[in-house]
Amino acid sequence: MTTSAPLEVSPIEVRHLIGGRWLPGAGEERQNPARPGEVVSTSPDGDSSLVEDAVTRACDAFPEWAQTPAPMRGELLRRAADLLEARADRAARTLSREEGKTLREAGDEVGRGVRMLRFYAGETWRLGGITLPSMTPRTELSTVREPLGAVGIITPWNFPVAIPVWKTAPALAAGNTVVLKPASLTAASTAVVAECLVDAGLPAGVFNLVYGSGARVGEALVTDERIAAISFTGSTAVGRRVNELAARRMARVQLELGGKNTMVVLPDADPEQAADLCVRGAFGLTGQACTATSRVIVLPENEEAVIEALRRQTSALAVGDGLDEGTQMGPVVSHQQLATDLRYVGEALADGATLEAGGDHSDLFMRPTLLSRVGPQSAIAQEEVFGPVLAVVTVQDAAEALAVANNTPYGLVTGIITNDLAAAMEFSRGAQAGVVKVNRLTTGTDVNAPFGGVKASSNDLFREQGVTAMEFYTRVKTVYLGY
Ligand code: NAD
After folding, report:
1. pLDDT number for residue 4
2. The CATH number of 261-446 is which of 3.50.4.10, 2.40.50.840, 3.40.309.10, 3.40.50.10490?
3. Does the annotation count 301 as an active-site position?
């Protein structure tokens, strides 16, 4: 575990963006999780009156933005993509310092944001409806997709560039205006996206940004009657609350929540290659991804070989400052998250699990932790940890592996490693998850593919990303035109 000398960089002062104006405000300091004492950013702490202003500006800007020809909206998104690409180094460094992920991981995230902006810029050329034969003579029957209005977006700290982009870009492409409330922990990283949208020439009020506490600013946004829809990504507990508040006023709501993602390793798989996929899926991004591998399921035939490969590869990971070359895993994001990670490890050991690697920490640098002989019903096998902790569960056969993989409250990503096509197909068909990965990392998705969960991982009404995302941000109008 390494920590370099502090950088000579003054804190980034993050501001709200309302009606095209950047507004300062007293607020929170964010320290670099890898360098205690180094303040990366200060972000303002908004209140409900600020949310009211932002919603007013978003509503005022809506009619003109909705009537702007869609490909011209796309042109602005494309320009924002070019700007984010040009600023990628700064964005990645800010992200690494603020959240703790490695510079390579941060660069990948920014690159994903760029691709998302380009993808939805392209979608503005395809915002079509359908035509249908009418049973009434001389009647043209067709549908159009219309934007909803001013929409609210609430995002977590773990992908503070990519998630705001993958929600905002389809919203704007469809002709909605946006009020975004990102996580304060990673305020400066999201601010880079906002700057790119503004500098691309987005009209004032089309995109607004308000920082502050979830309970105050987040709830003010969700409960504002003028907000046509809410897209939320975060924990399942907060998602439930958002769902209740939105349901009271019958607002459209999209929730993408936690996960307990599993990788099954069948005995025909090479243990070394399988361990590589599991270790990268579990400890990449410090395990702080909704799609992180958090359980590996093995059978008696391969238990020993897989655990041995997992132990070796896990112990070999270099933990350190995300900005240092050679670091493979950055620090945990906060002391609160570290306490959660350590509590789960302690409980697992008390429940009879075996510690194969890690389990300890120095400051926020937690060593990647591997536990075996984990009971499928124990808390570590059922609940989302959101840290660098991987639990190995042993079952008797492939059928039980599928049953155990499905037997959690969550249903985001499930994977299997095997060359047996029939086993892979059966697993894929039987998996209770929004995404299935065969011989691929549980983490990472392509921008053109739908993404989302089932069960407690989502409210399962709309998918994000890809063309599918446009469904959430539009409604269908049916037109009968007699002539
Ligand atoms: P969180 O639920 O604590 O916070 C998410 C956002 O909601 C933050 O902006 C927060 O300020 C806001 N918020 C908090 N209370 C609120 C309230 N009462 N009303 C409105 N908004 C409120 O989540 P987090 O700790 O920032 O992120 C980690 C969680 O996000 C994990 O559970 C992870 O699995 C999940 N996540 C899911 C996905 C996905 O696509 N499924 C992607 C990334 C992260």
Report:
1. 53
2. 3.40.309.10
3. no
